[in-house]
Amino acid sequence: MADAMVLDGKSTAAAIRAEIAEQVAQWKTRSGVTPTLAAVLVGDDPASQVYVRNKERACEKAGMDSRLVRLPAETTTEELLQQLDRLNQDAAVHGILVQLPLPKHIDAQSVLDRVSPNKDVDAFAAENVGLLVQGRPRFLPCTPHGVVHLLHRYGLPVQGRHVVIVGRSDIVGKPLANMLVARDCGLGQEYANATVTVCHSLSRSLADITRSADILVAAVGQPRLITADMVQPGAVVIDVGINRTDQGLVGDVDYDAVRSVASAITPVPGGVGPLTIAMLLQNTFAACRLQTSPRAAG
Ligand code: NAP
Fold first, then answer.
1. Strands 243-245, 236-239: parallel, antiparallel or unpaired by DSSP?
2. Could you give the CA distance from residue 57 to residue 64 in angstroms, rounded to a whole number?
3. CA-to-CA distance for 200 and 219, rounded, in angstroms?
4. From atom 24 of ligand 1, which residue's Cα is the shortest distance away?
5. What is the C-alpha to C-alpha distance for residues 194 and 139, in angstroms, rounded to an integer?
6. Quick one: which atom of ligand 1 is closest to the CA of 276?
7. DSSP for 118-146?
8. Other residues' Cβ atoms within 10 Å of the Cβ of residue 270
9. How many CB atoms within 10 Å of residue 178?
10. CA of 292 to the centre of ligand 1 (A)
11. Domains of the chain with bracketed CATH
């Protein structure tokens, strides 16, 4: 079989970011309002610092403002909640993200739930999770949205297909399953209405399940967990994993072996990762429009 088509997240994300930048420029002229994202970073985890810096830069390039709120690692849950209350009340801030992971002593769920639902551009707060589960999302969670967007851009519909997702986290696996099983998650029915199986660390016979996938998504965090024998010939393989190894960044899929079995595959880096930031920009712009009165928007 010929090598799989490579789903290029980098160029797809660049195109989306250019579209957003154009829309933001028009919006600013019309409304005089600059979409603004506040990122809250607790502690000094090096990977988190890089992620936040990339998000700030992306905002700048799209013509949006960003604010970084840096807090020391010893910050208590209560102090963080108070900080979020201030950002929630600040009319100049339209989107708020709390960079994960938070230090272990912080009650992460109550922190995520404190972000005002209208500013919750990661869509992690309980109200927004509930709306997604009900099939009427306010914001789509960034990484799952990036996955569906990539499939859409490459004309790889999911309707009626068996999608197997390996990983059931609240930020990738579960929300992606909810989007794919919905009747329409905003990209048309062809990019929803899938038959979805979600696997996790206690799933038995993982390889038997993954081999039944028309579309296989790996979101685990284990380098090269998905080997070629776990993939149905001709399947579409989406690798969400980002693992730092001695050989650099690698995904959860054994890329070199799987690309000769799959019909389409995402690389790591340069696959889903860049889409996540593009979707964050889209949500920040949407949050700004949501919070700007129709009169101000003209
Ligand atoms: P997570 O919260 O650690 O969840 C990992 C999931 O994988 C869990 O559901 C776990 O099962 C499951 N799992 C672990 N070992 C397994 C195994 N051997 N077989 C089957 N399932 C297994 O991770 P996450 O936050 O979803 O992130 C997953 C990966 O995606 C990481 O590499 C992360 O860096 C990456 N990521 C990338 C982006 C992006 O923008 N591209 C965004 C977010 C995350 P249990 O639930 O049973 O423990």
1. unpaired
2. 10
3. 10
4. 169
5. 20
6. 40
7. GGBTT--SHHHHHHHHTT--SS--HHHHH
8. 17
9. 20
10. 36
11. 32-116 (3.40.50.10860), 142-274 (3.40.50.720)
Atom of ligand 1 nearest to the CA of 268: 41
- Separation of 66 CA from ligand 1 center, angstroms? 28
Q: Among 102, 200, 206, say which to mutate for ligand 1: greatest number of ligand atoms within 8 Å of CB.
A: 200
CB 244 within 8 A of CB 252: no
Check residue 297 and give its pLDDT: 54
Contact, 125 vs 113, CB < 8 A?
yes
Span from the CA of 26 to the centroid of ligand 1 (angstroms): 38
Handedness of CA 43, 45, 51, 54 (dihedral sign): positive
- Mutate which of 102, 217, 242 for ligand 1? The one with the most ligand atoms within 8 Å of its CB, which is 242
Q: Write out the two tokens for 90.
A: 């600040």
Give residue 296's pLDDT.
55
pTM of the model: 0.97
Using DSSP's 3-state secondary structure scheme, residue 93 falls into coil
Which region, left, alpha or beta, applies to residue 160 given φ > 0 means left and ψ of -120 to 50 means alpha? left
Is residue 53 in contact with ligand 1, taking CB distance under 6 Å? Answer: no
Structure tokens given for 286: 């949407």
Distance 14 CA to ligand 1 centre (A): 26
What per-residue confidence (pLDDT) applies to 199? 98
The two beta strands, 195-199 and 162-166, are: parallel
Nearest CA to ligand 1 atom 39: 273
Catalytic positions are: 55, 99, 122
- Shortest-distance atom of ligand 1 to CA 168: 9
Q: To which residue do tokens 């979101």 refer?
A: 219
Residues of the chain with pLDDT under 50: none
